[in-house]
Specification:
Number of helices: 6
Order of helices and strands: EHHEEHHHHE
Strand order of the largest sheet: 1-2-3-4
Helix content: 25-40%
Shape: globular
Structural class: alpha+beta
Region (Disordered): 168-187
CATH class: Alpha Beta
Number of strands: 4
Largest sheet: 4 strands, antiparallel
Length: 187
């Protein structure tokens, strides 16, 4: 019997200009730059993946972009660092826009809390070709998110809380509540 199940999720996120501007910390994006970003968005759409993974009692959403996107961003750094910064932000925006479509609560809270990388989750992600980097909580893809599915809460359940400026209350960052039925430590 399989240790996990994985269901491919179809997602076609819309180009969220406001999220891109917030991510890139830009106040204005010119028309020529916007056209280039839209072209990349369209080219990257088939490199975007989303899975619903179940490891028994716990379920996860995993969204990521292929390594081709990482190579595209790296090439942008080589040719134009100023362009590369916004191209990097575009990749982050695409992943988060997909997460927002699949888990609207994440958009309301402002982040997708990272689950504890349990042995079952590690094995499932490894089997799906998206392993963790070593023993840490980061995934092998640069543009990737793993979070609980369905939504279980915000900062309060995030394994990255101690290292996150938002979770530690910096800059008046909002927090959320833990939803009924979720018991911390039962992962």
């Amino acid at each position: 019997m399989a240790e996990h199940t994985a269901e491919k999720l179809d997602v076609q996120p819309y180009f969220d200009v406001e999220l891109l501007m917030n991510t890139s910390q830009e106040t204005r994006i010119g028309g020529e730059v916007m056209n280039r970003l839209m072209q990349r968005w369209e080219a990257w759409m088939d490199k975007l993946h989303a899975l619903h993974i179940s490891t028994g009692k716990i379920q996860y959403l995993v969204v990521w972009l292929d390594s081709d996107v990482e190579e595209d961003v790296d090439a942008a750094w080589e040719s134009s660092p100023s362009d590369a910064f916004i191209v990097n932000s575009l990749a982050q925006t695409m992943v988060m826009s997909a997460v927002h479509m699949l888990l609207p609560e994440v958009e309301d809270v402002g982040c997708a809390p990272a689950p504890k990388p349990t042995d079952k989750l590690r094995a499932a992600l490894e089997a799906e070709g998206l392993p963790y980097n070593g023993d840490g909580p980061t995934l092998s893809r640069r543009y990737a998110v793993v979070t609980h599915y369905p939504f279980k809460g915000g900062c309060e359940i995030c394994t990255l809380l101690k290292d996150c400026p938002k979770g530690s209350g910096a800059a008046g960052a909002p927090s959320s509540i833990v939803l009924p039925g979720y018991e911390p430590g039962t992962e």
